[in-house]
Specification:
single chain; 363 residues; alpha+beta; Adenine-n6-DNA-methyltransferase TaqI, Chain A, domain 2; four-stranded antiparallel beta sheet; 33% helix
């Protein structure tokens, strides 16, 4: 797909792309609903913020397609459907149809590396002055058609990989539900088998040191301390904030700090920590209702019910180990598949970059 586009005239983007301010297309209400007809766009990563039912100020079909340009980050999106926008922090770019194919310009702009150093608007002062090589209009259309065809295949691959990744996560969750909803399991209270206490509330992340023993915060293992308070297995529950309900399985020598709840099996070790972790590590189980910041009390953790296999009216450790082995194998396979899908996504991204480079570079 390489083209000798270096032999064509060099033009500034502003010569072939005219900007329009988005003011009259800004959405009035942010009460979005997926059932509404009109997407609300941003040029950033999220692209579609939601859908509005507002009928006024919708970008008209007859002016499409366009490129929306984030004036602060220089991110771009190609748009060929009616829309509204979230804010004025963008430019709507229209191609001079007598000189340029907007799809070609969109692909060419994806190769531009622009250093965003300051929080300011970039299109008028700098970005529009960047020069690109512009073939005749017929050649631009030919290049754009070829690239659209190739990219549709790569995007299809990305979509398939993404769906497979979601399906893998779904299967993992389904297995957990299937195992722990087994009617042969009996429900017991966590506090009857685990010592449950707050992490050390006097320690914050400010106490972290360059080397030492693992420290767990509400975000997980994210630092080191010069001392340790626990040795062996334990479960750390994130008890406040965005990750509230997330559980972390600790081993060896460690400490849990502020905003966590620590669960350690009692001396009789009737319930395996890893078995309990597989069950407890589900934020839906802990999710609190209400508008305030998510928070889990110690009493709630003590009263949490957990299904376990029993033998002679006591938790059966051997049966727990068997369940752990089954879950370990399934989760290991899931992780392998997840890594594979991640690599596939990177490969598709690299392929796209390679195609852009080969198309817009000289032979």
């Amino acid at each position: 797909m390489s083209h000798e586009i270096q032999k064509y005239e060099m033009v500034e983007l502003g010569e072939v792309l005219k900007y329009e301010q988005p003011t009259k297309y800004i959405v009035k209400s942010s009460h979005y609903d997926d059932r509404n007809p009109t997407p609300v766009l941003t040029a950033g990563k999220s692209f579609i913020l939601g859908y509005t039912d507002e009928k006024f100020g919708v970008f008209p079909k007859e002016k499409l397609p366009v490129i929306i340009f984030d004036d602060f980050t220089t991110a771009i999106k190609f748009v060929d459907f009616p829309f509204k926008v979230k804010s004025s922090a963008m430019k709507i770019l229209h191609a001079d149809r007598n000189r340029a194919d907007i799809r070609f310009l969109f692909y060419a702009m994806q190769r531009i590396t622009f250093p965003v150093c300051r929080h300011k608007r970039h299109w008028i002062s700098e970005y529009s002055k960047i020069k690109i090589s512009l073939p005749p209009l017929s050649e631009q259309k030919h290049i754009a058609d070829k690239m659209a065809k190739v990219f549709s295949e790569t995007e299809r691959g990305v979509s398939i990989s993404s769906k497979e990744s979601v399906q893998t996560a779904s299967l993992k969750k389904s297995l957990l539900i299937k195992i722990f909803s087994n009617p042969d399991l009996q429900t017991v209270k966590l506090g009857d088998y685990f010592d449950i206490a707050w992490g050390n509330t006097s320690i914050t992340k400010k106490s972290y040191v360059p080397s030492g023993y693992t420290a767990y915060s509400a975000a997980g293992a994210d630092g080191l301390l010069g001392h340790y308070e626990h040795e062996g297995k334990g479960i750390i529950l994130s008890a406040i904030g965005a990750r509230c309900g997330k559980c972390f399985l600790a081993n060896d020598k460690w400490t849990a700090i502020k905003n966590t709840i620590v669960m350690t099996s009692r001396s009789d070790h009737s319930i395996d920590e890893k078995y309990a972790w597989y069950f407890l590590n589900d934020e839906e189980k802990w999710r609190s209702k209400g508008a305030g910041q998510p928070f889990i009390t110690q009493a709630r953790a003590i009263g949490m019910e957990i299904p376990v296999p029993l033998k002679d009216n006591k938790p059966d450790l051997a049966a727990q180990k068997h369940i752990i082995e089954k879950l370990d194998a399934a989760f290991a396979l899931s992780e392998q598949l997840g890594n594979l899908f991640t690599k596939q996504g990177i490969s598709f991204s690299n392929l796209r970059t390679s195609i852009l480079n080969s198309t817009f570079s000289s032979k």
